[in-house]
Amino acid sequence: MKIQVNKILWGYAFLLVGLAYIFGLFIDLTGDSGLYAAISRQMVESGDWFNLKINGVPYDQKPHLFFWLAGFGIQLFGNTNFAFKLFPFLYGLLGIYFTYCLGKQLFSGEVGKLAALLAGTSQIFFLYFFDFHTDTVLQTGVILALWQLAAYLQKRKAASFVLGFFGVGLAMLSKGPVGAILPFFAVLLYLLGKRDFRQLFHPKWILGILIVSVVISPTLFQLYNNFGIEGLKFYFITNNIGRITGEYAGSSSDLFFYIHTLLWAVLPWTVFVTGAIVFEIKSWITKKGYNIWGVYLLGSVLLFVFILSIAKGKAPNYFLIAIPVISIVTASWASHFSAISKRLQLFFIRSQIVLISWLGATFIFLTIVFALDAIWIPLTIFVSSTFAIFIALKTPAERINKLVLISTIVIGASSLLLNVKILPDLYKYQGAKQVLTLFEKNAGKDKHLYNFELEEYEMFFYAKDAVDQINNWEELYDVFEKPETWIYTNSIKYNDIINMEFKFDTIYEIRQNGMNRINMQFLNPGTRENSLTTNYLFVTTQKQGN
């Protein structure tokens, strides 16, 4: 009976997590994901899946894999959030499965299962599985590479060697050379730890590089075809070294950025992750409980985070590929939880109770502030989750197992509330969707919408008919010559335009806030209006005078 109840509770927990992921597929796009969606749509519509472009301009920032995955969905289901996200989502889920496989390969099946759970329910996974970045698919290739290269180092099977470097290639086809960093450091540290210098300098690694080169060849050919040698230089050097030095992107000097990113990124597992990292590093110093695979995993992450920390270009999504690796280290430590002192066990358990209590209080706060207009949604989630937690507390089991179950329920319920109600409401304030609603409702047939000086790329994705980009004032003058021209622009360009001799038929004020510019003033419904900025959608007739 106890086993049956436990299975039902875990089934409920996974239902919450699964629903949170599913509802995330329908949340609108913003920022980078809007850009990627626009590129994917234009790739599908042009029929050219090789030369990536945005509004007719060749695109060099990211490789092909994400766009191919997104393009398959758009080809099948049209220009919708679900279509764009579906195949990157499914491919990203493979990363969770590969996390299980790597944990099982190095430690045990139970460690693999727990590691997959920790990664798949971490806050950063919930975030980037609705706000899709190339990192969402990057982590899959990286974990595949780490798994298969570990298998090769253990058993020296040729298939694992090939699959390991195939994984590196997929990672580099997702986001460039950054995809090779963790696998490179992992293998290097393992061989150094084993003092296996013969393997370290073995020429077989050249074969691995050739495998990677074949996998990433579509991107290399496209960059060379469109940009020449500079395109290849950008892929291998500028887009990577330039982010470290700040010459290409970034100006942050916060050396602790990824430390405080870690604290929220691994919620609700921050307590256990912190303990696992401390104990793992301690084992390297004391040699007590030392395991070379801990160096393979955590050592590579620490070197990677060091590079990220000194780099001028920083973003939370860069840290995503470290989460599955950290999850395996944490799961391995948790599998020996009973071996640590009773005093430390009690400390970690009490700390975790405080953390999930805080998350529960946050759920209530979010409901009061954001969801009272549809109270049945949070109320249903809250009541059912509270009942499940109550049953879990009453069911005989080890305290650590109860805590993992309850923590999963809490983060699943909170993420579901965010994805089903709160985030969709906030995304309504984006300008692009407001503009398209007005245009498609009020513009007559054969009318055209133009964008001037705004980087709301999701508009190019959502529009029923293609939206044209105005790149300069000369193009703007040409557009004004067309009757009943619809133009969307910002307040600065709008003020410049109204000082010219043009007659306006209609002007719409678009009160908006992009979701990549979130602040407390916007989040607070009482002050939200003050945080909004005004863009303009206007319709012209003809130029006066001439």
* Structure classification: alpha/beta
Tally of individual helices: 25
Count of DSSP strands: 7
| Count of all domains | 3
Enumerate the spans where pLDDT stays under 50 for 5 or more consecutive residues: none
* Cα-based radius of gyration, to the nearest Å: 26 Å
Taking all residues together, what is the mean pLDDT?
A: 92
- How many strands, which pairing sense, and closed or not: the largest β-sheet? 5 strands, mixed
Residues in β-strands, percent: 5-15%
Give the overall silhouette: globular
- Alpha-carbon distance between the termini? 87 Å
Strand order of the largest sheet: 4-3-5-7-6
* Range of helix content: 55-70%
Tell me about this structure:
It is a single chain. Helices cover 68% and strands 7% of the residues. Helix 2 packs across helix 3. It has 546 residues and is α/β, with parallel strands linked by helices.
Can you tag this structure with a few keywords?
alpha/beta
Topology:
Blueprint: H1 2-24, H2 31-46, E1 53-54, E2 57-58, H3 65-77, H4 81-106, H5 109-120, H6 123-128, H7 134-155, H8 158-175, H9 181-194, H10 197-200, H11 204-227, H12 229-245, H13 257-265, H14 270-286, H15 292-310, H16 322-334, H17 342-370, H18 376-394, H19 399-427, H20 431-442, E3 449-452, H21 458-462, E4 468-470, H22 473-480, E5 485-489, H23 491-498, E6 502-512, H24 520-523, H25 528-531, E7 533-543
Parallel strand pairs: 3-4, 3-5
Antiparallel strand pairs: 1-2, 5-7, 6-7
Helix pairs in contact: 1-18, 1-19, 2-3, 3-4, 4-5, 4-7, 4-16, 5-16, 7-8, 7-9, 8-11, 9-15, 11-12, 14-16, 14-17, 15-16, 17-19, 18-19
